[in-house]
Amino acid sequence: MVIYCRKCGEKSLWYNHSRGRWECLNPSCAWQATPQEAASTPYSQEGSRSGDKIQSEPPRKRTTIQCKKCGKKSLWFNPSVGKYQCLNHKCRWECTPEEFANTPDFGKDKSKPPVFQEFGIPVWVVRTLESRTFWTSVGIISIVLWLALWLYFRYDDILTTTIAICMPISFLVAMKFLLRRFVRQYAVIAASLRHYKTKAGTSNWRRRIVGSSWLRLIVIIAIIAGLVIVPWVGYRLFTHQTDPVIGTITFLFAFGLFVWLIRLLNSSRQMSRKPGFKLVFFSLLGIALVCAFAGIEPLTTYKNISFDFIKQQSSKIVESFEKVTPPVAIEPSSGDVAAIIAKVKPSVVYIHTDVGGGSYIGSGMVIDKSGYILTNSHVIQGSQLPTVTLPTGMQYSCSIIKRDDIRDLAIIKIAASGMDLSAVTFGNSSEVESGDEVIAIGYSLGLEGGATVTKGIVSAFRVSEGVHYIQTDAAVNPGNSGAPLINMRGEVVGVITFKLVREAVEGMGFAVAISDARLFISEYASGVQVPRQEAETQTREQTLLTLEKETLMLINGERQARGMLPVVWNEAIHSGARRHSENMQEKGYLYHDTYGQFAECCYGGSYSSLLYSSAKATVDAWISSTAGHREILLDRRYTQGAVGIARDKGFWATYRCE
Question: Is the dihedral of CA 595, 600, 601, 607 positive or negative?
């Protein structure tokens, strides 16, 4: 029972049986008094309800029985007026004892009027369980914990994680329901707190958010997105393109959120203000730009066309300025060797290979910021996954892209996403003359402390088996193979290959001329001396093969991080994996090939974007999968394998190993 307080005049005073005193639920008052003190305390405000008498004795506990009008257990006898009164606000039936005896029962009351058990409930417990802030914090903490276990710690059993996090939340919800249903003091305090929250109204910041046109626009856009996302999630679930448990949970969550947003939009109490034209226009423009850069078609195509047009116009403007004002060539100081070395050194890398129980070392140079490295073919001979160490000390496994044993050149690639690589600048070896000063930068003998720098001159020019070499007296030692030979402008004019080691022979090192290296790189990049259509096909095939080998490289990185041997690339397995991905692309859904003595992982779909169709996204999906893909990737029994990818219609990947 809640009566009017004698201090603040609000209907907020109730008797706490557990403490044996009267307590005011008004936060601004919080008056407490024993029954004797409360009975002797006068009202502090004029016009207060004097009909609420406080006796010097504790009030009796109210006993309720079933109401004969509404059927609820809400009827009690009020001795102050001598009547039965229903506490149900929808009923409010009153009757004398004689009328109650003559009124037929609403339903068969099988039990006598029960004596309700009272429990002492602290007010802070009620405030906590009835607080929106508390439940919002619980939800946010649960989501953050779930994401941390799944993404950061890579805890694979997502269903177990979800159940473990939901169990304490379910316990709190059940406890709140039981307390509301069966403990009278909790219900009285909760009703009073809700009364004051309603009376106080919504806070200014919440009122502004709820009544803003921004919120209405966000809800409308979310509903439009839900019209696409919900069917797409359902399609992936019913076509077996995702794990059944995770797919079912995702579908139910998306559908429930979609229905809730529709009900929220139809609410008459919220989001009544319609968004203006400027808000809608600029919001849709921002969403279109985000989708264009995220790889969603056809917005990405429009973005690329616009950028190409801007680049063409910019190049025309630059050319017009260059014609008006010809550039003045400024030769760098030939004596500033330290500045030249500081320019090139960040582009020189250390290469380490393990072949047949022995280890071999060499050097290389970054020729493209996307991760392509030029080195000697003999440095990586016999190795499937050489290790590249950058000047920063970071180590990466790399895939072999192209080799030429005649020129003794090779191109390898590391996964350069997120790395700020520095590429070398190529010079012109035909402009080099005997006597010109040159500098060699490489990892001689693999010594710690960075690359070794030696200086010399161009001694002569040699030709052997159609390959042009630059002879130099700059010191060349084991580990310099694949290192750049640069001129005094910091431009690469040769790729150090070998030196003569004979008795009474000194200072005879040889580097492949950069003109031959340029020819090798151009043959790989654009397909010289082949028809244009065939060249485009070769370029597309090389790009796809690079992506496949990069995916296998990431898989081997996961294996090596756990102390396992890497999987060796197998061409026969690669052709089968590529064929299976193309078949999945034609059928439009994922499936496993049950014929063959191999293990298989599949990934992809008809939708593709920059984030979805990448080697990292593919390996991350397999590693975090609960359908057995992680076990296949990290199985020590498998020593050979390959990745096959098809991406003409979406993105489809297959990993096979045996």
Answer: negative
Q: The tokens of 476 are what?
A: 């060349």
| Contact predicate 12/5, CB 8 Å | yes
**Cβ–Cβ < 8 Å for 534, 636:** no
301 token code pair? 């195509």
- pTM, two decimals, is 0.36
One-character DSSP codes across 318-333:
HHHHHHHSPPPP-PPP
Residue entry with tokens 């059928």: 587
Phi-psi region of 560 (alpha: psi -120 to 50; beta: other; left: phi over 0): alpha
Residues near 2 by Cβ (< 8 Å), separated by ≥ 6? 11, 12, 13, 14, 25, 188, 191, 192
Q: Cβ distance 481 to 376 under 8 Å? A: yes
Q: How far apart are the C-alpha atoms of 231 and 251, rounded to whole Å? A: 9
Here the tokens at position 577 are 């994996």
The three-class DSSP label of residue 12 is strand
Helices (H) and strands (E) counted in the chain, each on its own, are 17, 24
Mean pLDDT by 10 residues, the chain (658 residues): 78 76 81 84 56 50 75 79 80 84 63 42 78 82 75 57 77 82 71 56 55 73 83 80 77 84 67 65 78 71 76 74 52 67 92 82 89 89 84 85 87 77 87 90 87 92 87 90 92 90 79 88 53 52 82 88 87 88 85 80 70 77 79 88 87 89
∠ CA 353-423-434, rounded to 5°: 90
Edge-to-edge strand list for the sheet holding 83-86 = 64-65, 75-78, 83-86, 94-95
